[in-house]
Structure formats: C-alpha cells, structure tokens
C-alpha cells in the first residue's frame, strides 16, 4: 500500500510556545515524529507540513527536506486538519504521486513508536475510512459525565444504571498519536463525517499528548521514569 507519512507542525503554539522544536529529553520534539516515520518509510514518502521557518530549518538540519511551506491561510488557530491534509495530498498528486493512505503523525505524541504505527496499519483496509489511535477514557458518559437538561439540572450523558464505573461499557478518546486515513474517503468528506472507523488502542502512558505546560511536565516525568527503569 502506498502511504504518505504526514507530520503536521504549525508554528504558532500558544499552550507551549515553540513546542514543536522545544527540546524534549535531549532533542527537539519534532524529531521524535521524524524518527518514527523514518523507521517506516524513506524520506521521499515523508512530508512535513509547516508554516514556520524555524521548524523548516530544524527539519533540514535533521536531514529531512521540506517540500513546501504551508500557506498562512492553513496555519491559523481555526485551521482544521482536514484542509491541511488535503493540501499535502494535492501537492503530491501534482508531482504524480497518489498515496492510497495518509499516515498522520502529530509531533505532540513523543511516546508513539514505529511499533504502534505498524500495529495500526495492520488493522487498516481500503474498506475503512480510517484507523485511529485511542486510549480508554477515564471519564464515562454512563457514570461520571453529565449534561444540563432544559430545567437546569444535571443528567448523565447516557442512560444506564451502573453502580461502578468498571461495569460501564468502555468508551474511548482519540489520543492524537496515529491516524491512518483512506485518501479516497478524504476526497469525499472531512474526517468528522467518517463512519467506517476502526480503533487502535494505546496505553494511557503512551497516549500522552503535549498541549499544556502540565502535559510537558508529566511527559518529562514519564520519560525519566522509563530511563531509570529501562522500560
């Protein structure tokens, strides 16, 4: 299967300024995604989509050629992943390359490994819209998630009579680590409209996604723990 390994790294992070090239355990955060992609594909099939000159420079210092600079219109706080992915796919189509799937690797998942990606790819078929990595959510709509009803009172988000959270049906949340996206589906609709989605489950520790300074501190703690234990 022909895959495009797409790394998306916008420059204007507000939660953690400059996070994509901020050093994490000895090297820029971006390099973890590049390292993972390089274990699965050659550089010609790896695309870094960014609007930021400093990120481009960091990637090129790591030996990865950046094929284009993302247009500013696709690099705002309101820019969606769908348009960014389409832009990259269209660029490669103009070069005569037509990937059957896009493997989206966001830099903010430093504990995602090539093994995770391989396992997600193994679940994929062209009958699906997407395989996406998830982790089991600690919050459950049958137990401890509530919505306000028209009278202003809280009600459980989903009906059910469960005395313990462990008895509730499991629910999952996207962890942002791995997306294997069918380009044929992508051409027809945005990701939010996909219905044929298969989950790839990752552990809570491997699912850490860096969005806030607290996330960063937790990730550094976990990385230090793994270094000490050899895990």
UniProtKB/TrEMBL annotation:
Assigned keywords, A-Z: Nucleotidyltransferase, Transferase
Pfam families assigned: CTP_transf_3 (PF02348)
GO terms, molecular function: nucleotidyltransferase activity
Highest taxon above the source species: Bacteria
Name the UniProt record assigns to this protein: Acylneuraminate cytidylyltransferase family protein
